[in-house]
Amino acid sequence: MGSKKRSAWQKQKAQFAASLGEGDLLAELGLGGDSDHDPFARESAARAARDEAHEAALRRKACERKNRYASRYEAELTAAECAEHGAPPLHVYQCPYCNGWHLTSRPER
User: Fold this and answer.
1) What pLDDT was estimated at residue 55?
2) DSSP percent split of the chain into helix, strand, coil, nearest 5
3) For the whole model, what pTM was predicted?
4) CA–CA separation, 92 vs 88, rounded Å?
5) In sequence order, what are the beta bridge partners of 46?
6) What is the Cα–Cα distance from 95 to 62, expressed in whole angstroms?
7) What are the E-state strand segments in the chain?
8) 88: enclosing H helix or E strand
9) 102: enclosing H helix or E strand
10) How far apart are the C-alpha atoms of 83 and 75, rounded to whole Å?
11) Which residues on neighbouring strands pair with residue 101, listed in sequence order?
12) How far is Cα 80 from Cα 103, in angstroms, rounded to an integer?
């Protein structure tokens, strides 16, 4: 009696289709693609897409929507100008995404 495992059944089905010369037809129909070899391919692709979207959101929040300064001196000069006009104290930090400099109202760590 043959195996009842799904992977064994898929292998037997692929061998049978290949013996009939229908392997290309199954691939065209999407029945013999790589997803049969990796049952978690769809979940892995979805996880990768979610991770990429999350990283893009973090980058947008942490860097892209903020003013970027080319040097620490330029950022500190801007922070001092803001303080002269009554703004709360601003601190300077180097961005891990763009290696530029940004201002924050959060206290230094």
Assistant:
1) 93
2) 55, 10, 35
3) 0.55
4) 13
5) none
6) 8
7) 91-94, 101-104
8) none
9) strand 101-104
10) 12
11) 69, 94
12) 11
12-44 confidence digits (pLDDT tens): 778 877 777 654 555 555 555 554 567 788 888
**Token pair listed for 44:** 């892995």
Give the separation between CA 87 and CA 22, rounded to whole angstroms: 73
Largest Cα–Cα separation, the chain: 86
pLDDT at residue 93 is higher than 90? yes
Cα(105)–Cα(63) distance, integer angstroms: 15
Chain centre to alpha carbon of residue 84: 41
Cβ-proximal residues to 34 (8 Å cutoff; 6+ apart), any chain: 41
Q: Which amino acid is at 42?
A: R
The stretch 38-52 carries a mean pLDDT of 87
pLDDT given for residue 14 in this prediction: 80
Place of tokens 């947008």: 60
CA 37 vs CA 16, 40, 76: distances in Å: 16, 9, 56
Decide which of 45 and 109 is more confident.
Answer: 45
